Amino acid sequence: MNAAYRRLEAASFRPLTEHTRGFLALVAGLFFVAGWGAYAWSLQLRHGLAVTGLNDLVPWGFYITNFVMFIGISHAGTFISAVLRLTGVGWRKPVVRMAEFMTIASLVVGAMMPLVDLGRPERILNVLRFGRLESPILWDLVSITSYLVGSLIYLYLPLIPDIARCRDALGDRVPAWRRRLYTALAAGWRNTPGQREALERGIRTMCVIIIPVMISVHTVVSWIFAMTLRTGWHSTIFGPYFVVGAIYSGIAAVITGMAIFRRAYRLQEWFTDRHFVYLGNLLLATGLFYFYFTFAEYLTIGYKLEPADKALLLELMVGRYAWVFWFWWLAGWLVPVLLLALPPTRNAWGVVTASVLINVGMWVKRYFIVVPSLALPLMPYEWALYRPTWVEFSIVIAAFAGFALLLAGLAKLFPLISLWEMEEDLAGEAPAREERPRVGRRAARKSGRVTRPAVAWGDGGEEGGAND
Amino acid sequence: MTRHHRRLACRRPVARPLLATLAAALSLVVALGAGRVGAASGDSVPGHPAAGHPAAGTEVVSATDGAVHIRVTASRHGFGHEGEGFRFEVRQGQEVTLTFEYGDDDLERDNPHVFLVQGYGIRTERLDRNNPEVAVTFRADRAGTFTIRCIEPCTGHSNLLAGRLEVLAAAGATPEGGSELAVGLAAAATRRQPGGLTLVAAVVDPAGNPVPGVRVAFYEQASFLDQSGWAELGTAMTDPQGLARLDVTLYRPGELTFAARVAGRGPRTEARLTASAAGPVAGYQPEPRALGVPFINVRLIWLAAAGVWATYAMAAYQVYRVYREGKAWSSGA
Amino acid sequence: MGLTRRDILRWLATAGAGTAAAAWAKGGAAGLLALVREARAAAEGRPEGSAHSGEGMARDAAETRQWVMVVDLARCEGCRTLDRPPQCTVACTAEHHVPFDQEWIKVYEADDHGHHYFLPTPCMQCEKAPCVDVCPVGASYHAENGIVLIDHQRCIGCRFCMAACPYAARHFIWGDPPELPQTALVKYSPEYPLPYRRGTVVKCMFCAHRAREGRLPACVEGCPMGALYFGDYETDLASNGAEVVRLSRLLQERHAYRLKEKLGTRPRAWYLPGHGEAFLGQTPGDGAGVQGGAG
Fold it and tell me: What's the confidence (pLDDT) of residue B154?
């Protein structure tokens, strides 16, 4: 236990035990916004969807946009956590826990949105009773449920040693119910070699399986659209297009969250500028990929210009949706990518600005993926109109408040930074050491070069013997 | 539309080589009856410009060769105070004047109507208490059956929907001497196709000679929901022997009535024929909705989900191991 | 008293085990699945393997009909010469007490390279209906006669079917439907789904309830021009209320087509090409050969 680790532990435990006035005010504000949204929803439940701006020609609107947005954000936690863990990227360690919190919070909020959108929410169980696997909605149900459960397991496993630390260290500083909670969730963690081996195995299993599940989630979300015969949705690349878009918006959300928590929890020592720049690089890469998909999507319909495609493109580029379309291209893509790519802004400030812009821009992007394709005339009629009402605005904003509340709640219950994983780095012989990929380590172990201190077991020093 | 294996057979199966014989006999019969059939044709009877089934309250005001004037009372009970039966015939080319009279004076409220001659696109003015008589005049230049109905949402609307105007095709529209032609009809089952049937019509002139090169229309007496009438099956030209053949497919068993006439004019000559189903009727077969490739099935999703959840179980089992180890550690300590 | 919680639990366990054992005896997992399916069918109140299972259109030998509609565009002039709203829509709205501003058979005014024409659009009752395919709960289904029906007691109101329909034929009961005295006593059936339920999807059903009574659909009866035919693939007959015709012959002779054929939805509504030419220009008062005279 060195000083660096003790500083981290103190910083991590402080929010768990002390509640500042600012935090309470924030929670009160969020509760007010969420409560306002709940009131709006109650109105909608009482009077039906007639209180929204939806109509027979544009049956989906803000709620489905929000659904896609939140399910998208949920990808970042897993992407950053599992992919970087699998590839052995060391700098991930301080940020993965928060990213995983975000995954859970956004999945819960995202999964609520279709419920809000239903005309008959009380019949939601019909999906289980009469569910038809032929419907993409059932694919979503299977996929999102699997992802939520998988994410919970994947969040929980690396939390176990930290919960044990909470159980052992916090003592009387937390109320009794939380002590009981920590004791129960710690699952009798005593940091024995057998426990470490089991935990390592569980984490490794999960970080492999969670990646295909993550990809499946936004793929089937996109298939809700792509399985229809609508212009603009009727596209083969929608699956990967949505997945990349999800990771793009998700990483941006994680960076925004990091910036907020860094300030609120005073975590400058661990959420360093280096982390922002590294995540900014990832964001830049996915941003370029997303450009590639968007470009391919619009070029393939814009070259052939089938009448309906042409009408859609014209409406997007110079018509009613030009504002949102070009807003995305500028604020959601061009400016962020420049901020992320140009040396003068390759710093925390630039990356966070880019991320905030991307968050807003990607919501707008989802809006003009969902709505114009519906408003496009299918028969000889004019473009349909969709004017969201205050009820929809309220519920969408309340969803963000609910997301923030869930995130704040998780961050108040559990350490925001993975203590035990950081301890390895801080206490080990090479504090900022990059992990080597697995294959390399296995080869190295075979050649007998690896003899590591027991405390660094998490990186695989010991697991070989116990696993085989 | 695809139709497979309608197994309908004719109760009087006649082998195809016999068709010629049948047709020959047919021409003979027709030739003998030619004069009679020809006389029955409406076209050849002058001075009979309007007929049909006039209901009470319907009146043929005047009828000449060139014009006909019909007057009818319209009330909530129907045309001429009756629910049904307003039907009249005119000949193609006649000028028709239709006068409607308001018949709901016993009703306290006003009960306005606007009448339409469907198919002629002709609409009357509004008929009501203040305008108790309206008339339209038009030339019946198209042959066929046309409906006369009210298009105002009035009381007793459903009683005013089924007036019929039958415009008989004019003689001038057919080849020379067409009105003198007679048609005989026979039918024989074909072996080429299940439910297949060949209709043969023989056309002769009054002298009994076969008439080649005349188009014959074939009909089937059909009823569909609450509608019934002659459904045209198709047309065929007569060959040098004066015979016209049409291959048709039967879609249902039971007693069927066919008819034929020289296309566009004259009365139909009927021939009755009873067909019955021999074997199961497969009916209309829609295309399958899926690809129909074995094993490519939506249920594969369960397989994928099962794999994922089994892996989850493996990971969750590690938690149990942690728990077990912790317990062992506690009891050991 | 003899019965304790433990007894009940034990009894439940035995009963459950018995059921499961019976299922296994019936053939392992397959037996269990069959049991589940039976239970589900019982819950749905439909015989197992009925058309509702989404497997397609089951057949009922002789009495099965396959309803279709044929629209003669040459005869439809949008009721312009009558100076009235489209009478098919009016008749439909009256027959079904169609709520709000919905039009279940909508007459579009189309302009196709200068050719002006009117396009009445009922629900197409597609054979490969996108709406039926995407419904998550099987509330949209094909009846045996090919008509796409909606079970409003099951519909969850997700509106996926509306997003999937390429013909904009579906409507939603967004708010509370008006309560009408004449609908109060109607017994609900998917063919005549009164009273309407908030938060569910509605559409044209080819007046399946009228066909059951042997009557033509309201729009066909209401069309003053005889432009709408109701037909049946099985008996190959069709009628517009004035004449009975052979359906296949009508479709063939008049070069019938279907809307958006290339989508492969195989609609059951056919269109006979035309531009209302049989009626356009015959507006009463100015048309050739038409004289309106006061009596």
Answer: 80
- Measured between beta carbons, which residues in chain A are less than 8 angstroms from residue B330? 188, 190
Instruction: Give, as one character, the DSSP assignment of residue A334.
Output: I
Average pLDDT over residues A97-124: 94
At C7 the pLDDT is 55
Neighbours of chain B (3+ CB pairs under 8 A): A, C
CB atoms within 10 A of CB B134: 24
Q: Do A189 and B322 touch (CB under 8 A)?
A: yes
C270 DSSP β-pair partners = C70
> Contact A51/A389 with Cβ under 8 angstroms?
yes
- Which is nearest to A74 in space by CA: A212, A208, A218? A218
Where in the sequence is the domain holding B52, given as residue range(s)? 44-172
For residues A249-269, give the mean pLDDT: 92
Residues B33 and B72 in one domain: no
**What integer is the mean pLDDT of A227-254?**
94
**Do C119 and C32 share a structural domain?**
no
Q: Which of B163, B229, B241 is nearest to B204 (CA)?
A: B241
B236 and B134, same domain (yes or no): no
Looking at residue B181, its amino acid is L
Helix, strand, coil % in chain C, rounded to nearest 5: 30, 20, 55
Which residue has 């039907």 as its token pair? B87
Residues of chain B falling short of pLDDT 70 = 1-58, 81-85, 170-181, 187-196, 251-255, 264-283, 333
Q: SS3 sequence, C177-225?
A: CCCCHHHCCCCCECCECCCCCCCCEECCCCCHHHHHCCCCCHHHHHCCC
Residue C210 and residue C257 in one domain: yes
Residue A68 pLDDT greater than 90, yes or no: yes
| C241, part of any domain | yes
How many folded domains does chain C comprise?
2
Give me the sign of the Cα torsion angle C205, C210, C211, C216.
negative
Q: For residues C39 and B302, what is the distance between their CA atoms, to the nearest angstrom?
A: 20
Structural domains counted in chain B: 3
What's the CA gap between A135 and A126, in Å, rounded?
13
CB contacts < 8 A, B to C, total 148
ipTM > 0.90 (yes/no): no
Q: Which amino acid is at C231?
A: G
In sequence order, the 6+-apart residues with CB closer than 8 A to the CB of C281 are C287, C288
Can you tell me the mean pLDDT for A391-404?
Answer: 96
Per residue in C211-234, pLDDT (tens digit) is: 988 899 999 988 888 899 999 988
The CATH code of the domain that includes C100 is 3.30.70.20
Distance to chain A for B331, nearest Cα, Å: 11
Burial class (CB in 10 A: 0-12, 13-18, 19+), A86: middle
Please give the pLDDT value at position A1.
Answer: 59
Provide the domain limits for residue C11. Answer: 7-48
- The reply to whether residue C156 touches residue A60, judged by beta carbons under 8 angstroms, is no
